[in-house]
Amino acid sequence: MGPRSVAALGLVGAVGVVAFAWPFLAPPASALNAHAQDAPWLFAGLLVLLVAVVAATISESGLGAKAVAMLGVLAATGAALRPIGAGTAGIEPMFFLMVLSGRVLGPGFGFVLGSVTMFASALLTGGVGPWMPFQMLSMGWFTMGAGLLPGPDRLRGRGELALLAVYGFLAAFAYGTAMNMAGWPFLGELASRISFDPDAAVPENLARFLAYCAATSLGWDLGRAVVTVVLTLTLGPAVLRALRRATRRAAFETAVTFEDRRVAPEDR
């Protein structure tokens, strides 16, 4: 990633943090809380910013046609895997593929892949709505984090699988927590004891949020984490080899050069 891509990702990350965590960043008397009901539609504008960041990352990183093609294949594969376990105790096999892809392809490509995969899966499953930009941000961070893990060139074998399994387990909970944050402030009176209270202090709202996570998504997040660990440990070696072989053949970071084979007159 070049400096402009890093700056762009930092900007969208900062915007995303504000978008997710505004209930804890805004004081109780802030005017932001008056717009609690229409905030999701405002945040949906993040989708446009995400598309712009994806385009800038692809352009500046110099990804060739093969790399873009691999992005499309992996995004389509992840999108196809997502509906397999939909509605079944968090069985979501796409997460393990995102972890392994981010590990092999790096943080920049990982962020692009995670965001595009979630966008494609939303189109495939009809899950388009105000929550989609939050899902794209969360999955982009999820996949990018795998690319930031230590030892990408040296660590191999069981040590690497263990590292990826631990990351996948923790990141699965982090993804679920982030998505809870996106929807929790808008429960209203549906669950008064655990919903966001604009008149309460930050510690009280934090306690409400933790209760909300435990009551609504803890089991689902645990299922996602366990499935990610199991698939990483069982299918990880084969998938990692295939991804690394594909990246070598695509020569992602190798510039194409042409040799001048013209013969000098004195050598004829």
Question: Can you put this structure into words, describing what you see?
Answer:
By secondary structure, the protein is mainly α. The chain contains ten helices and no strands. The longest helix has 33 residues, at 218-250. It starts with a helix and ends in an 18-residue tail after the last helix. The model has no long low-confidence stretch (mean pLDDT 76).
State the low-pLDDT regions, or none.
none
Distance from N terminus to C terminus (CA atoms, Å) equals 46 Å
C-alpha Rg (nearest Å): 21 Å
Mean pLDDT: 76
Strand content: under 5%
Taken in chain order, the helices and strands follow as: HHHHHHHHHH
- Biggest pleated-sheet summary: none
Question: In total, how many beta strands?
Answer: 0
Q: Which shape, going by the Cα principal axes?
A: globular
Helix vs. strand class: mainly alpha
* Percent of residues in helices: 55-70%
Could you write a compact summary of the structure shown?
By secondary structure, the protein is mainly α.
Keywords:
mainly alpha, 10 helices, globular, 0% strand
Strand-helix topology:
Elements: H1 3-25, H2 39-43, H3 46-61, H4 65-81, H5 94-105, H6 107-125, H7 132-147, H8 158-183, H9 202-216, H10 218-250
Helix pairs in contact: 1-3, 3-6, 4-5, 4-6, 5-6, 5-7, 5-8, 5-10, 6-7, 7-8, 8-10
